[in-house]
Design goal:
The structure is a single chain. The protein has 725 residues and is an alpha/beta fold. The strands form 5 sheets. Strands 15, 19, 20, 21, 22, 24, 25, 26, 27 and 28 form a 10-stranded mixed beta sheet that branches. Strands 11, 12, 13, 14, 16, 17, 18 and 23 form an 8-stranded mixed beta sheet that branches. Strands 3-5-4-8-9-10 form a 6-stranded mixed beta sheet, with helices on both faces. Strand 13, helix 13 and strand 14 form a beta-alpha-beta unit. It starts with a strand and ends with a strand.
């Protein structure tokens, strides 16, 4: 057993609100968009964290840039539309769309400037490790010969240089499209030509050069292109140039009464490609005339234009995370196969029949979910499979298993959510593949996203049908499951099996489920269930009993939930939250939230699981706690406009794994944690010079889960706890 003082430590002292601050209105909440930017600053901080391997730091830098791109194409694009339409309605935090855009712009510009500083620091460190990014001045004759051959054979055939004049309209530049703009002068008569060179996204941004053993040498694509402008424009010389990149509004607009949802999405995806430009990133010191043409033609304003003195398209640095330098990457980690599954020689149904089983990904392999469905597809006793699909990979083994099952004559129903942002096209392709195999594909609701992660396998055993249910906190995506922390709950519990059937009937036939025995479902009962549980904890506190709430999620912004947490805090409930990203709740304020503490964990794996634990009249962690897993974050969209699930786990071992291992370790983590302060800033926990910081990720990699244990039992598995019940 691992003891930790954190779980028994008192809550930090609360602070008094600022003079005159209104804690009955907008002052109660942090702004959603600025909170998200604060999260992305934390991601960027990992790129500066000396404890992180060098190339993993480069990966964090790339992630911070990719995150920011998506933020602009969705969130900023939406606010921009509101501001342009004249909408001045403030959000819960009191800021209008225009005010939010002003604050976002200042924050994001600072973030992008910091990304350039970090990239410069990392490239200097990489050079010390033999990884060099060279500019044209440092290229040898052999390098130039190699680049000429590379240009002619791999790049030149796909380039389409375009003149910019009245006879050649400015071309369409797609979102994240990267281009080189040129100002040229003809040698014979000095005639000026302005041209655009769109760079196909299929070409790598960094060209690898020959290098001695142990060395790695690269040149940026744009530098190689500038070396060969003469091939594209013979007898012209370059008098000025710049590079630029655009981001476009990527939100989808659908008709409310679409007769054919798939066709409507195909049309909407084509419209999205041509969404308005929301950000132009252009290299500093661009020729003024060239810059003005680009801005006018896109078109963008000065406030939507960002000049960068450095690398444009920082997301591309992910190409430099070299697999052949494992010494600069995280140590390899192989996910575990649960011992209970091994005890049953890989038979998932036998392992689940023994008792409920919870797998903690990526520490326990997601292959067990794939095996569950492949075994169902080939098992003659299985008569039906029902499955939700929100995000899947291109070559999804889950989709393959469902196709295999349908082709073998089983009844297979798949709910494919077309509205999964940025995966719409992939999901259309998968739905057609499923339909060709004979799967009955449904698309849920036009006005609700189906975000629940559920699989049900119905198996004939003797004279009855047994439902093997799987509930997840993450997507059925075998690639992201390697880096996202999520939970997979397998059970043959009859009540949950019946609830699963009712839920699938709701998704396929609009039959609203009644009398659910365990599940709570958004948008019907999930939020009321949360609020009722919080109220019960407050009543426990008022009755003199211990009262506590532990929860973990990606985002917390729904005002009804926040206000209830404020209320129960004032009534004596101790609330400890792990919120990875957006958080609108202000912790630690006297008279409002003095009993609430919040932390964020950013590390090797992306925290993605959603968990709720309530003390139920006991101190947490406790065997008597009520323990739930969910697909839903505490956001308005999840609780009010999506189909989500909240599942109560009643098996004692599963409960212990969640509350005494997973939640306890998350709360005890100091290595990867950031503490949210009352003013909205985040700070790392104070370091103990005499102790190695406790990492929950390292703990989970080194220790097997409780419920996945086999014949060895669970007694020798460490738990994080303090005291007894």
């Amino acid at each position: 057993m691992i003891e930790t003082d954190f779980l028994a430590a008192p809550f930090p002292a609360s602070v008094d609100p600022s003079d005159g601050e209104d804690l009955t209105g907008a002052g109660r909440y942090f702004n959603r968009e600025l909170s998200w930017l604060a999260f992305n600053w934390r991601v960027l901080e990992e790129a500066e964290n000396a404890r992180v391997p060098l190339l993993e730091r480069l990966r964090f830098l790339s992630i911070s840039a990719t995150n920011l791109d998506e933020f602009y194409t969705v969130r900023v694009a939406g606010l921009r539309e509101l501001a342009i339409s004249g909408n001045t309605t403030p959000g819960a935090d009191g800021l209008s769309p225009a005010q939010q855009l002003t604050r976002i712009d200042a924050n994001a510009r600072s973030l992008m400037e910091r990304q350039q500083v970090v990239f410069a620091e990392l490239t200097a460190r990489m050079a010390e490790e033999g990884i060099h990014i060279l500019d044209a001045d440092r290229l040898t004759g052999d390098d130039r010969a190699f680049l000429e051959e590379t240009f002619l054979n791999r790049v030149f055939p796909v380039l389409s240089p375009l003149a910019i004049d009245p006879a050649h309209p400015f071309p369409f530049i797609p979102s994240t499209g990267y281009s080189l703009a040129l100002q040229l002068e003809r040698e014979s008569d000095g005639r000026i030509l302005r041209a655009l060179l769109p760079i196909p996204q299929q070409i790598d941004r960094f060209i690898r050069l020959p290098a001695p053993d142990g060395q790695h040498r690269f040149v940026a694509l744009e530098d190689m292109l500038l070396l060969h402008i003469g091939t594209l424009y013979p007898r012209y010389r370059v008098t000025g140039y710049c590079t630029f990149r655009v981001l476009r509004d990527s939100d989808l607009e659908l008709e409310d009464e679409a007769e054919d949802l798939v066709r409507e999405f195909e049309v909407a995806l084509k419209r999205r490609r041509r969404g308005e430009v929301v950000r132009l990133n252009i290299s500093a010191h661009a020729p003024e005339r060239l810059k003005r043409i680009i801005m006018d033609e896109l078109p963008v304003t000065e406030s939507e234009t960002i000049e960068t003195d450095g690398l444009i398209g920082v997301a591309h640095v992910a190409e430099l995370v070299l697999k052949d330098r494992p010494d600069l990457l995280w140590p390899s980690f192989i996910p575990r196969v649960p011992e209970r599954v091994q005890d049953h020689e890989g038979d998932m149904f036998a392992a689940i029949r023994q008792k409920d089983m919870l797998l903690h990904h990526p520490y326990e392999t997601f292959d067990m979910v794939v095996r569950f469905l492949h075994q169902a597809a080939s098992d003659p006793a299985v008569v039906a499979i029902k499955q939700t699909l929100y995000r899947t990979s291109h070559d999804s083994p889950i989709v393959d298993a469902l196709c295999e099952a349908a082709e073998s004559g089983k009844q297979v129903t798949a709910l494919v959510e077309l509205k999964a942002r940025f995966d719409e096209a992939a999901n259309i392709r998968q739905s057609r593949k499923l339909e060709r195999a004979g799967v009955h594909v449904v698309y849920g609701f036009i006005n609700l996203k189906t975000h629940a992660k559920i699989s049900a396998v119905i198996r004939r055993e003797g004279d009855r049908m047994v439902t093997y249910s799987h509930f997840g906190t993450g997507n059925y995506h075998h690639i992201t499951a390697r880096i996202y922390t999520d939970l997979s709950f397998f059970t043959t519990d009859g009540a949950l099996g019946r609830d699963t059937t009712r839920l699938f009937n709701y998704l396929s036939g609009y039959a609203q489920p009644e009398d659910l025995e365990n599940l709570a479902v958004s948008p019907l009962t999930l939020k009321p269930r949360l609020l009722e549980m919080f109220e019960q904890e407050a009543q426990n506190a008022e009755a003199g009993k211990p009262a506590a709430i532990w929860a973990k999620m990606n985002s917390l912004i729904e005002t009804d939930v926040i206000n209830k947490l404020y209320e129960v805090s004032g009534r004596g409930v101790k609330v400890s939250l792990v919120v990875r990203g957006i958080c609108g709740l202000r912790p630690g304020i006297a008279g409002l939230s003095e009993n609430i503490r919040i932390k964020s964990i950013v590390g090797r794996f992306l925290e993605h699981s959603r968990i709720v634990c309530v003390g139920n009249g006991r101190e947490l962690p406790s065997k008597k706690a009520r323990v739930f897993i969910s697909s839903a974050d505490w956001m308005g969209r999840n609780l009010n406009r999506r189909v989500e699930t909240l599942v109560e786990c009643n098996n004692p071992t599963v409960k212990a794994q969640i509350v005494r291992q997973i939640m306890a370790a998350n709360l005890a983590d100091t290595a990867q944690s950031w503490i949210l302060r009352p003013d909205g800033s985040y700070e790392r926990p104070a370091a103990d010079d005499d102790a190695r910081p406790f990492s929950c990720h390292r703990f989970f990699m080194e220790n097997p889960s409780l419920s996945g244990r086999g014949s060895a039992g669970a007694a020798d598995v460490p738990e994080l706890t303090h005291g007894d019940d």
